[in-house]
Structures are given as C-alpha cells and as structure tokens.
C-alpha cells in the first residue's frame, strides 16, 4: 500500500512538472530549445520594485544572473568571469556591480577559500536584497491602503457636503 501511494505521488509530481514545462515552453513561443539549459523563477514583484530599490538595469540583470546559480537556500558562488559573460560585461564591471550592491546593503559577498588555502570564488548572499524588497513591497501596500482610505474619506466628505448643501 505504501509503495502504491508513493508511486501515485511520484506520478502526480511528474505530471505537475510536465504541465509546468509545457506552460513555460508555450509562453516562450513553443520552442523547447529555449529552455534546454533551464530557467529561473523570478517574482514579478522583483521586476516591478527593482527601480524602487534603486537598482539600475545592469544591477537587475546581475541579480538575475546570480539567481541562475541559486537553486536552494544556499548562497550561489559563480565566478566573476561567468557573471560577466552572463551579464554581457567585463570582469571588472561585474565586480563593480557586486560592490555597488554591497555598498547599498543589498548583497553580501562572502570570501571562500579552496582546500589548499588559495582564493576561490565569492559566495553571494542575496538575503539582504530579498529582505529589503519585502519591506519596500509592504510599505507600498500600506501606502496604497492609506491612499485608498484617504480617497474614501474625501469621497465621503464630498458626498456628505453635497447632501448638506441640498
């Protein structure tokens, strides 16, 4: 009985993945080749709020390039050479993008050393960015609610004023 429930669950998961793959392929013009090297999940809110975080288009692309290496809660650790290739820039410019994000407390670079003591690629902690994004979204929602309440109050006052004038 346990095996059959396990089999059913595995088949259900596989079917859900197949359905998701079809949806993504469909959204990208039906070209499975476009997804042959994988894809990343990007919350729409990241793209909407990136400018409010002060991210330039290059910094936004840099974060997306980092996300192609983030498959778990572990910090990704691609080399600057690979990041530069993904972003379409030079290695010094990739380093500059990371430094700019770090200076604004949106990224934390963590030094990594190889077993022989030599320098390895940095790990990139994106949690500060995620935390700040959540704050900005929450503030925007609260601000929107406040504006809606204020507009409602003004509308009510206007209506009340019109009623009083009649």
Principal-axes geometry comes out as: globular
SS element count, helices: 6
Structural class: mainly alpha
Q: How much strand content do the residues show?
A: under 5%
The strand order across the widest sheet is: 1-2
State the end-to-end distance. 76 Å
Order of helices and strands: HHHHHEEH
The third-level CATH topology of the largest domain is Arc Repressor Mutant, subunit A
| Integer tally of domains | 2
CATH architecture designation of the largest domain: Orthogonal Bundle
**Biggest β-sheet description:** 2 strands, antiparallel
What is the CA-based Rg, rounded?
24 Å
The strand count comes to 2
Descriptive labels:
single chain, 166 residues, mainly alpha, Arc Repressor Mutant, subunit A, 2 domains, 6 helices, disordered C terminus
Outline the fold blueprint.
Layout: H1 2-27, H2 44-49, H3 57-67, H4 80-87, H5 91-103, E1 108-110, E2 123-125, H6 127-165
Helix pairs in contact: 3-4, 4-5
């Amino acid at each position: 009985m346990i095996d059959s429930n396990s089999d059913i669950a595995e088949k259900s998961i596989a079917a859900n993945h197949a359905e998701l793959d079809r949806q993504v392929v469909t959204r990208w013009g039906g070209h499975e080749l476009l997804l042959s090297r994988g894809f990343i999940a990007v919350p729409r809110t990241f793209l909407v709020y990136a400018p409010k975080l002060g991210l330039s288009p290059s910094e936004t692309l840099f974060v997306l390039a980092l996300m192609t290496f983030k498959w778990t809660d572990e910090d990704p650790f691609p080399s600057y050479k690979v990041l530069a290739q993904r972003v379409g820039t030079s290695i010094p410019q990739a380093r500059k993008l990371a430094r700019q994000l770090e200076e604004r407390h949106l990224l934390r670079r963590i030094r990594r050393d190889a077993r022989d003591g030599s320098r390895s690629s940095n790990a990139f902690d994106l949690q500060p960015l995620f935390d700040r994004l959540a704050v900005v979204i929450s503030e925007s929602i609260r601000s929107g609610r406040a504006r809606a309440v204020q507009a409602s109050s003004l509308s009510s006052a206007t209506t009340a004023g019109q009623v009083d004038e009649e």
